[in-house]
Automatic annotation (TrEMBL):
UniProt keyword terms in alphabetical order: DNA recombination
Protein name as annotated: Integrase
Boundaries of every Tyr recombinase domain copy: 255-430
One of the GO BP terms on file: DNA recombination
Gene3D superfamilies given in the database record: Intergrase catalytic core (1.10.443.10)
Organism: Mesorhizobium ciceri
SUPFAM superfamilies: DNA breaking-rejoining enzymes (SSF56349)
Amino acid sequence: MRRSAAPKPHKREGIWYLVRRVPKEFAAFDRRCLVRISTGVAVADDPRGVRARDAVQSLGAGLEAYWRRLREGQSAEAGLRFEAARKRARSFGLAYRTNEELAAGPLDELMARIKLLLDKKSIEDAQDVSAVMGGEKRPAVRLSGLIKEFETIEQQNLLAMSPNQIKKWRNPKKRAVANLVGVIGDKEIASLTRDDAIAFREWWQKRIVEDGLDIGTANKDIGHVSKMLRVVDLTHQLKLEPVFRNLRLSGAVPGQRAAFTAEFIQEKILAEGALDGLNDEARHLIYVIADTGLRLSEAANLTTETIHLDREIPHVRVRPNGRRLKTGHSARDIPLVGGALAAIKLHPDGFPRYRDKAASLSALVNKVLASKELLPTSEHSLYSLRHTFEDRLTAVEAPEKVIASLMGHKWIRPKYGAGPSLAQKREWLQKIAFTPPGRM
């Protein structure tokens, strides 16, 4: 709902009142044209309306909350009725059509549906008639309810995610919808127009020019909203116009992820005392990532079940283990050498402080590295250790298949057999292993 001017108190029979006209977006749920609510403050006791203004603002906020609850409750009930009718229509072998859609369509289809009800002897069954003849309107989903609706539809994709992964999945969508609502208001998705979409695009263009924001962020917002609308439209057969199609902004430059030099890592980051000030788990995770190339989340989520120090070749296994891996190729076994082996020996059960909290690990380590001038440029970060790992393997001319296997990347050829063995991978890792500081 668009922000309106703060309501002012009105005098009525010696009492200050809140007087509000029901906004158009709530008119279907509250049939009153004008709402009057007493503040209980007498004009004689508050002639300038100072106390009454505070009371009116509080009553106004409560009234708006009431309207929203009313809308959400009725919308939810209508949505359930619609879904029941749609499923019932399928049981008749029909695609659901509202009665307005049937009336606007071919007469033959309308007559065929009536004949079906007669043949099935369902003409007296109100639910069957509603399903076949389109008695329920399509659900009115508002932008404020779009994420919830999308999440309900996509729930099977969330089952494998950890709580933190779900949060990361949800947050950019929440940001995109909040930005859109801030530009055009909390409209029903069925009433969105191309003008609304263009207004959102122009709003982002202005922010990019005036505030120096990233084009990629704007395109992500547009992409998230467009995808959610497309999925909800497909599921509920809303027949929405693709108003966000082809609105992505041009000029986005792919981010260049920097890598440290091997010498910088060994001589600066792994120098004795260089990481003092970091807690043990964070410091030792740096050693693990540097010598395994693990993604931050993969290293932070190692557990007793995925750490194998007692094997002939000590190694860690990257597996879902309560969370979804980034890609299907991410599952892999990585031998432990150098600083990674030394660090894992100190943490045979993993790093519980940062389990499912890779973002916290990244924020802390990057802050400390920056304060100690251990980030050569603004493009460098903790994640740069992974890029250095790949560069180092390339420098010693490791086979591409070995590099892909260690990085968790897709191999360019069809996969046959088990891939490089632990012994083969350890052979190449030993060529690039760092020497950890004497005082771990």
